[in-house]
Amino acid sequence: MTSAKRYTGRFAPTPSGPLHLGSLVAALGSWLDARAVEGRWLLRLEDIDPPRCPSGADDVIRRQLEAFGLTWDGEIRYQSDRGAAYQAALDRLIVDGMAYPCGCSRREWQQHDHYPGWCRHGSRHPERKQAWRLRTDKGVQPIIWQDRLFGRQCLDPSGQGDVVIKRKDGLWAYQLAVVVDDADQGVTDIVRGYDLLDNTPWQRQLQSALDYPEPRYLHMPLILGSDGQKLSKQNLATAIPDDPVKARPLLYHALQLLDQQPPPELREAPVAMQLAHASRHWAPEALTATPTRDLH
Fold this sequence. Notes:
It is built from seven helices and twelve strands. The chain has helices at about 20-35, 55-65, 85-95, 175-185, 200-210, 245-255, 270-280; strands spanning about 10, 40-45, 75-80, 100, 130-135, 145, 150-155, 165, 190-195, 215-220, 220-225, 290-295. The longest helix is centred in the first third of the chain and has 15 residues, at about 20-35. The radius of gyration is 20 Å and the shape is elongated. It starts with 7 loop residues before the first strand and ends with a strand. The relative contact order is 0.18.
């Protein structure tokens, strides 16, 4: 098990809107996993897509986390400040033959399950703006890792296609940015939603290509709303409060959604009291290994 001295976890939301119950459960699980071993917990805002990140959304997220007692260590990191680091990583991938420019449009390959790698040996459309893609046919294959909840995973990234790591509009893509920042911040444990499990092969391949350490992973079940859809900002999920008193019953409910067993008398207790009990009794092995679970 990762020692308390080495453990570093993180919560890395996109500031495209306020947090909802699904993101609270993800943040809480990550926070408890770190605090239960006296580890560090970082807050990183993945604001690499400015059109999706309205002004002030980062402040709302900060207030929401504070209302639920989910304090972080150190300064908040903003990915919008990290372009030079991402470019250095991309330059290395290019030199090593792991990344290539691509001018293809999605419409051209929409009949395929994933991008078929047409530009691996030279862009088919050099006259167009170019994205940069990761070559998934090179490097470690298949990707094998042990998820802390879902067990042994074996996925071939080449079966998922050559993912974009820098967009045609010059913006950095999630896969490269998250890997570079996790390594730079010394993240040892990643606790996140099941919807990102199939992103792990790309990220493990990037970690290998860039000689980065490989963190442990714990993918948690996604919370579904009454309509059967994943709670998300796109689905207009209700925002959680930024008031510590209103947060109390919702924090208790989030602990139940994590399959923990908070005592009934803590339902209306201050968030600090609930979190103190929860961190002492954190039991990730109690989580149900299903991709999704209902809200109630």
